[in-house]
Design goal:
The chain has 92 residues and is α+β, with helices and mostly antiparallel strands. 36% of the residues lie in helices and 15% in strands.
Length: 92
């Protein structure tokens, strides 16, 4: 598969047709006209899912705070806890 990000301005691949998707010799060639304008919804959904997953590590099913500093993700995401600096990079 080839996704030619420069399709709108002529492309980087001879097989690219702006705004078209074609299969040439078994290779799918995608030539989006303005890929960035199509990415706002998926990017927002991905960010929201990341936040949901992070909160799932910090809050129990009952809605209680559960912070496990043995979890690498939690340890990296938390800067302070109970007035103590927990993140080594922030402490520096």
């Amino acid at each position: 598969m080839i996704v030619d990000l420069a399709a709108e301005s002529g492309g980087n691949c001879e097989l690219t047709e702006a705004g078209e998707t074609a299969v040439v010799n078994g290779v799918k060639v995608v030539g989006p006209r303005n890929l960035a304008s199509e990415m706002h919804a998926p990017a927002s959904q991905l960010y929201a899912k990341n936040l949901e997953n992070l909160l799932g590590l910090l809050i129990s099913e009952e809605g209680e705070r559960q912070v496990d500093f043995e979890d690498d993700i939690v340890a990296a995401a938390c800067i302070t806890d109970g007035g103590e600096i927990r993140n080594e990079r922030a402490a520096k």
